[in-house]
Every structure is written in C-alpha cells, then in structure tokens.
Amino acid sequence: MVQLRSLHRIYKYLYTDHRKDIQALPYISGSMFTVNGPEQQLKSIAHEENLLINRSFTDEPEIRAHQLQYLCRKFKDIGHIPIAIPRNSYQYMYVNDEYKFIFCMMPKLACTNWKRIFLALSDKFPNKDFVFNQMWSGDVHDTWAKHGNTLDKYSFPEIQKKLQTYKKLVFVRDPFERLLSAFKDKMFRKDSPVFQNIAKKIIRLKRSKEVNPSEQIKFDEFVKYLTDPDTFEVSYEQHWAKYQYLCQPCLMNYDFVGKFETIKNDIRKAFEYMGIKIFNETVFPDRSVSYKNTESSKITQTFYNKIPKIYLKKLWHLYKFDYQIFSYQMPDYVSGIDE
Questions:
Q1: Which 8-state DSSP code applies to residue 211?
Q2: pLDDT digits (tens, 9 = 90+) for 42-92
Q3: Structure letter (DSSP) for residue 6
Q4: CB within 8 Å of 245: residues ≥ 6 apart
Q5: 3-state secondary structure 158-200
Q6: Distances in Å between the alpha carbon of 219 and those of 187, 213, 273?
C-alpha cells in the first residue's frame, strides 16, 4: 500500500523556494490518497497532480520543471522510468560551453529556429544575418549535422560533469498537436523519400492493394499504423517519438520547461535563463505570429474526432505518459475512453 502526501505537504515540498513569487495554494483538508496496485497508483498520481496544478503557476518554466521532477519521482517509485540515459538521446541535446547550458531539441518544436540561434552563437558563423535570413531550412539541418555541438560528441566523464553542473532546458507541446503537425508536415512531402516510403508502406498495409502514386495517406491510417504492435519500428521515428525517448525528461532533471503554447514569452525567458544577451525574442524567427491556441486546438480536434475510439484509446495510452509528466490536460475528445 502506498500513501501519497497531502496536497498541503506537496505544496511545501515543491514551492519552498518560490513562496515569495507565487500565490499560495489553498489547503485542501483531508486530501490524502491511499491506493493499491500500479494502475491505481498511476491514476492517483494523475489525480493528485490535477488538483495540485494552478494554471497561473504553470506559466513559469522553472515551476513547470519542479512539477516535472515531482511527477518523475512518483513514476520512478513504481518502476516506470529507466535507470540510465540511453546514449542515442544525447544527439538531441545541444551543449553550449560558453554559457554552460544543455538544451534538448525535439522535432516539431521550432527545432530549425533553435538550430539557427545556436549556430549563430558559434564563432564559426560570424555572419548572423546569413544564418537567420538567408540560410535555407534544409541547409540549417545539414550545417547542424556537421557543426552542432551535441552531448553525444563528448566522453562519458565529460557528459557526467556537464549534466551535473550545466543548466538544462527543454521545450514541449501538446503531444497530439505535435503528432498531427508531424503528419501534415512529413507525410505529404515530395522531397523526402524516407517519409514517402513510410506513407506508401502504411497505405499498402492498411488498404491491402497496390499503391497509386497519386494516393495520399489518411490520418486515421497513420494512427492505426502507429498503434499496431507489428509496426513498432516506425512508432519511434524522431518526429513523433515520445518525449520520454528523445529528451529523457525523468532522467535529465531539467531546470527549465518551455511550452510551445506560450512560446513567445518562454523564448524571452529562455534567453534570460541561458544568459544570452545578444538575442531577444524578436530576433527569433517566429512561427507563432499566426498560431493561436484556440484555432489550433479546434483543427486538432477535427482530425482526432474522425479516429475510431478503439484506435484513439490506443494512441492515448501511447502518449499518456508525456501528457502526465508535463502536466497537459487530457483533450476533450479523449475524455471517457480512458477507463
């Protein structure tokens, strides 16, 4: 039997260093949860966290990091977290030795724009205007592959030292919105043989007929493919892989958690936190000018409403952990199927 702390004690534990900066959480009398078994423990953790979170608090990236660390400790207690960081995750972690920070970059989270900024920070690229305004996005990724300073390029002792002493930052977004963005961006690209082959493979498997080159993959077919245990390998393509596999949020002890939904403000806060003085949020190639959370959510819901519930439930369980540890609310169109 596992007994979880009351919300009052959790509040004291999480926010000891922030009491002057945030409004006190109300004390909830008798808020003690006693649960049995792993599944009940998972539900209790999620329920406890939902009560704990106040929306005004989650605007602060450092507070989000405390929430993340708290939840990760709970999941570690019931064996849901690996014991070591896989080395292949280090390729997503940019290292800046001058400013002493590590920044984990995941696809579909303004990754190209972050690479522009970090390339511009390097002495190898003195022409900042070229990096920001003239370098084609494809060239950004090619240049990054050659010159990007990522954690996997260091020795194990160096990695351990940096993980212990450097600031660590990560940006995330609603997992289902990220998945849909990856689908729309990658599955219809004529200039990407890799993704075209994946799309053709999905159509061939799900339609049981020859693939017409003009045919396009449907979102429900994509979802069925991701949730099919027989097609395990494609589920871990980096553009839609789980956060836990890319940036290891429960092993990295991140100090700063930015969110795509508040990217404009979080970029400014990230620059301040990293100590970068030469840039500001207006220099960042902003793709959020036309991005509105409400409109994006409606578009996302339109796509997911067309998914049969049996597959939507499987998809939810695939990304449920990412939702929970980063304190994202369950989407309305998923409510009721996770029983």
A1: P
A2: 555 455 555 444 443 457 899 999 999 999 888 776 555 667 888 889 999
A3: P
A4: 89, 236
A5: HHHHHHHHCEEEEEECCHHHHHHHHHHHHCCCCCCHHHHHHHH
A6: 10, 17, 38
Helices 61-77/263-274 angle, 10° precision:
90
- Bridge-based pairing of strands 101-104 and 167-172 is parallel
List for the chain the helix, strand, coil content (%; round to 5). Answer: 55, 5, 35
Q: Which tokens in the block code for residue 71?
A: 């939840």
Q: Quick check: pTM over 0.85?
A: no
| Assigned token pair, 85 | 């960081």
- What are φ and ψ of residue 168, in 5° steps? -130, 125
- The closest alpha carbon to 334, from 104, 319, 326, belongs to 319
Domain ranges of the chain: 2-77, 87-173+247-298
Please check whether residue 116 is in contact with residue 131, taking contact to mean a CB–CB distance below 8 angstroms. Answer: yes
